[in-house]
Amino acid sequence: MASHGELEVEIVAADHFVWSGAARTVNARTANGQIGILPGHAPILAILEAGELSVEPVNGERLVVGVDGGFFSVDSNRVVIVADNAKVGGSVTPESV
Fold first, then answer.
1. Cα 13 to Cα 87: distance, rounded to the nearest angstrom
2. 80 alpha-carbon distance from chain centroid
3. pTM, whole model, 2 decimals?
4. pLDDT tens for residues 7-43?
5. ATP synthase F1 complex delta/epsilon subunit N-terminal domain location, by residue (predicted)?
6. Domain that holds residue 24
7. How many domains does the chain contain in total?
8. With 50 as the cut, is the pLDDT of residue 86 above it?
9. Is residue 2 domain-resident?
10. Euclidean distance between CA atoms 66 and 53, whole angstroms
């Protein structure tokens, strides 16, 4: 569980778990453009566009996840990302899923 001043992030794909943990920031591309989420962000529900999203974990190196659509929500420092398909480390193509 993330402490005060951190985000609690969970990333899942339609058929598998991708990643969860405490993070400082989350960046993603939405139907309305690029968005960055920091602790204390206002609640939001957005459509996720195909591309890469990045997470800066509290411990560890920056995580890049390729997604091909879905949605994400932010509420009370909890970020939930549900992607149709997702792959840690790169883009999602029909050959890689």
1. 9
2. 7
3. 0.87
4. 999 999 999 999 999 999 999 999 999 999 999 999 9
5. 7-86
6. 7-89
7. 1
8. yes
9. no
10. 6
